[in-house]
Amino acid sequence: MAxxxxxxxxxxxxxxxxxxxxVCPPYDVISENQRYALLERAAHNIVRLELPxxxxxxxxEAAKILINxxxxxILACDGQPGLYICEEEFANxxxxxxxxxxxxxxxxxxQSSGVILPHEETLSKAKTDRLNxxxxxxxxxxxxxxxxxxDGSTRDSVTKILARQPDVAFEGGDxx
Length: 176
What we know:
Elements: E1 4-5, E2 10-12, H1 32-41, H2 47-50, H3 58-71, E3 75-77, E4 84-92, E5 95-103, E6 105-106, H4 124-137, H5 153-162
Antiparallel strand pairs: 1-6, 2-3, 4-5
Helix pairs in contact: 3-4
C-alpha cells in the first residue's frame, strides 16, 4: 500500500480575492486564449504560477511571483500538516456526478514494487516543463490524479468529512 501523509499546503488568503477568480484548470488543458482570460480575470490567478509564460526565464519569473505573493500575504502556508479532502461536482448528460478525493503527499516507491503504477502515456516535454517549474519554485501547483486502494477506512473517513460544511467552495469556469 502506498504511504500517504499530510503536508502544509500553500493557500490563498482572503486578501487575494474571491477564490473562484483565483483558480484555473490543469495546466495541460489551458489554451493561450484561456490563459490570457484567466490573467485578465484576476491579478492573482494561479495560472501565473501554474503556467508561466512571462520573461526570459518563465520558471524563474514564477518563483519571483511566488515569493512576492507570500511576502504580500496573498499566499500563506497552513500552520499544521493536513490531508485535504475535495469533492468535484459536475453534470454529465444532465446527471449530477461527484468525484471525491484527497490531496496528500505520497511516498516514492520503486516501480518494480508495484505499489505505484506508472502513467501509461506521459510526454517528455510535459515532464520537463513540470520538473523545471518545481525546481524553480519548490512547489507542485496542481496535484497528480491517481487512484488509491485501501481497506475502506480511508473512504469512510473522507465520506464523514465531506458531510461537513466545506472550508472552501467555488465553481470553476467550466461548471465544475
